[in-house]
From TrEMBL:
GO molecular function, one term: RNA binding
CDD domains, per the entry: PseudoU_synth_RsuA
Catalyses which reaction(s): uridine(516) in 16S rRNA = pseudouridine(516) in 16S rRNA
Protein species of origin: Rhodoferax antarcticus ANT.BR
Protein name: Ribosomal small subunit pseudouridine synthase A
Length: 251
């Protein structure tokens, strides 16, 4: 694949813009099997094997990714929307190439896999892989998600038992159950859900006469949010991470 086309697929602008980046000496390519050796490329049409290619644009290193899979530690007071109403969009936390990756539809770049409320923090997946988004969002797949819940009133065994047995929400007579539920401390509940109803955690806690004061998603499937990834930071997910996401959450 020509270097200008590689840059285009990775979100660095139109093909003309990408060709200009190369011609201006803004793009360097890492030599194969030499992780620290860089070569400045001047020919936009020079061809490379795209899989496994690593390159540097404007001083920032990038790996070639046919599809982008991103983990963001979502901070509070941000919205999972391209057109936020009150708070900044989570997309402003991502570099331009991730927001500009070409898509067949009208919306470009990576998209959030589901949404977290503006006051909810923690694990948020983003990708430009539509099949992955569908698979992760489908209720048939029951992907477990673990939440750390700070509640207003002290927890008791009755509340935990109710959440495990199932509570009825106001929009559905069928009880909604927690896949796992543990009172970590007096006001800290660890809750695992396999569904994704609107404001589900808050409504489930309200149904057992308590109130959510803080909500943080710490795990999706078998993948935990890394302690080193600070709020507002992101990193690439690799094949091993994607495999973990498909696995059951560890107790």
């Amino acid at each position: 694949m020509q270097l200008q086309d590689i840059l285009y697929t990775q979100g660095f602008g139109t093909r003309r813009v990408c060709a200009g980046l190369v011609q201006q000496g803004k793009v360097q390519v890492f030599k194969e099997n030499e992780p620290l050796a860089l070569v400045t490329i001047a020919q936009a049409a020079m061809e490379f094997e795209a899989p496994g290619l690593r390159f540097r644009v404007h001083g920032t290193d990038w790996p070639y990714a046919e599809k982008a899979y991103i983990l963001l530690n979502k901070p509070a007071a941000t919205e999972c929307s391209q057109k936020p109403s009150t708070y900044p969009s989570i997309y402003t936390l991502l570099p331009a190439p991730l927001r500009q990756r070409p898509q067949k539809g009208a919306v470009q770049g990576v998209q959030a896999v589901g949404r977290l409320d503006q006051d909810t923090t923690g694990m948020l997946l983003l990708t430009d892989d539509g099949q992955f988004i569908h698979r992760m969002s489908s209720p048939r797949h029951h992907v477990p998600k673990v939440y750390e819940v700070t509640v207003k009133h002290p927890l008791d065994e009755r509340q935990v038992s109710q959440l495990l047995a199932g509570v009825v929400l106001d929009d559905d007579p069928k009880p909604v159950r927690a896949a796992a539920c543990e009172a970590v401390s007096e006001c800290h509940l660890r809750l695992t859900l396999t569904e994704g109803k609107y404001h589900q955690v808050k409504r489930m806690l309200a149904a057992v006469s308590n109130r959510v004061e803080g909500l943080h998603r710490s795990q999706i499937g078998g993948l935990r949010l890394p302690d080193a990834l600070l709020p507002g930071q992101w990193h690439w997910l690799d094949a091993a991470d994607l495999t973990l996401i498909q696995q059951p959450a560890a107790c």
